[in-house]
Amino acid sequence: MMPLRPSKSALRSFHYQRYIASGRRPFTSSVAAGISPHRFSTQKRSQSTASAAASDPRPAPSPAFNQDPQRNEVSPLQNRHLDLDDSFVGLSGGEIFHEMMLRLGVKHVFGYPGGAILPVFDAIYNSKHFDFVLPKHEQGAGHMAEGYARASGKPGVVLVTSGPGATNVVTPMQDALSDGTPMVVFCGQVATGVIGTDSFQEADVVGISRACTKWNVMVKSVAELPRRIQEAFDIATSGRPGPVLVDLPKDITAGILRNPIPMNSTIPSLPSAATLAARELGMKQLQSTIGRVARLINVAKKPILYVGQGLLAGPDGPQVLKELSDKACIPVTTTLQGLGGYDELDPKALHMLGMHGSAYANMAMQEADLIIAVGARFDDRVTGSIPKFAPQAKLAASENRGGIVHFEIMPKNINKVVQANEAVEGDCAENIRLLLPQIEAVSERPEWFEQINYWKSRFPFSLYEQQSPDGPIKPQALIEKLSDLTAHMKDRTIITTGVGQHQMWAAQHFRWRHPRTMITSGGLGTMGYGLPSAIGAKVARPDCLVVDIDGDASFNMTLTELSTAAQFNIGVKVLLLNNEEQGMVTQWQNLFYEDRYSHTHQQNPDFVPLARAMGVAAEKCTNVADVEAKLKWLIESDGPALLEVFTDKKVPVLPMVPAGSGLHEFLVYDEAKEQERKALMRKRKVNF
């Protein structure tokens, strides 16, 4: 026979009697006991059921868990009435999007329509408040937004549909994340009721874009739409700029807001005493760090400023850089993305450093006893081999007379690649402004600049196989001629590039004098970036001459955007260097893979009639004698135009620091070695 299980009430009574027997009261307040559905008897148990009588109740005060709860009738918010915004009431989600664009001062949007985003496109139909640029591909829209942001300093805005419309913007978002470009992407999404059912053009865009954005979100209700849009712009432009994505389900953009919403997404509060103390401590630590940095600069014999794009985030960045360089007489080298941050006609300019940077900038980095990195992240194309990087600065650090100082706004970039002896976290321009009063004025550094000038004379950028009157057009000479023809208007000339050899030649042989005049894909190295980013830059600054210096392989990837330039009469100029190969890859195959050119020669279309078919004026140049006249035609032409220039083949970009080498272990042009290289290519039956 199965034993009978005791009932729950019997078990409770048993446990209660154990509490009484032990002389303890149950963990239940009198109020709680009064309202409990299982009230326990407080009657004294008989000796038959307990070995000892219950003890008397403990005198007051009893333990807190036995006391009646005391309620605070004063609410801290009882006198506060949240301000409600009823200006959006009655508007659809699409109309709220349009209104928020007006409030945020958006003047241009790049995008492509589709089913899931139609409520938004319907709301902006015939809007007179901003211009919409329709590309031929969503990737083009993303790169246009990047070019717009880089030229103007304002976030570029992209509007695309769900599924493939959103996934086509992944490459521009990753590109913007790598280079710190502010961009806000709005993409359509299927209705919330069918999310997760693999419905038509459904994609988990929030999941896909998590790794290539600063922040992303799916809007869950019409009421939160204004707040999410505001957050997107705030996050894209704060700290280190970058891309954000807002996913807009179709039922949200089609829905109507019925009730007012709070003016603020959160209730503002005064900072606590702990917060104020932390701020004060942080400022004291910053002042202490800046004091130590000033001491290092004041005792350094061979300092160098290594400047990246982070300095260009603020409008006064280039100005404070010049003040520091002039006051302490410090030479300046920049990264690819930092070009234009310092006037390259200044005698203290060392131009670009790194794998294809100037030999004298690389030598100066290796010999400097103090490296002051400003808004740069020590990426591998700049440092070369880390164990071989900056030996003199490391030696000076061990003797407390130098080292590496890093000004950086993004904490994760500090000590990520190179260990800094001093790190100054925060806005680079603001912190340099704090540093300047503590810097001792130095009129000259004769020994240091004598060494630098020697390197400049020995390894000039002009060291390449010179142009012959009847020979093929040299790409270096072509870029130098463009630089000369625009010398009087450098502040109104913006250069964009694709990715490849032409990108490096543009960086080396064009003279950069003003910020936001060099727009290129650096961290990700996206081929096809040049033309759409030029369109975006021209939209942002229509008064400027915008020239896309491109290569044939890179240009092939987004050339359909020529039709976009023609449709909207966006007057970009394309200088197309055609060597009929993927030049940067063939350079590596020539140097390191014994001229095994595996799939690096493509068949190009006839670019000139193709451009004309798209409504773009186009010319071709094959002779050295015609270069100057053709370039003048390109610069002075009305509307979009293309100039295709057939350049010499198998021309290496030099200087070059091979992978795994130190910055001082670079290759430069040597006529004898160049003849040996060509003889070896002939032996291998290479056509060039």
UniProtKB/TrEMBL annotation:
Required co-factors = Mg(2+); thiamine diphosphate
Which stretches are transmembrane?
A: none
Pfam (any one): TPP_enzyme_C
Instruction: List the signal peptide residues.
Output: none
User: Looking at the record, which segments are called Disordered?
Assistant: 38-75
Single annotated GO MF:
acetolactate synthase activity
Q: Which residues form the Thiamine pyrophosphate enzyme TPP-binding domain?
A: 498-645
NCBIfam families assigned to the protein according to its UniProt record, in alphabetical order: acolac_lg
Describe the family membership recorded for this protein in Swiss-Prot or TrEMBL.
Belongs to the TPP enzyme family.
This protein's name: Acetolactate synthase
Organism of derivation: Aspergillus wentii DTO 134E9
Q: List the taxonomic lineage.
A: Eukaryota, Fungi, Dikarya, Ascomycota, Pezizomycotina
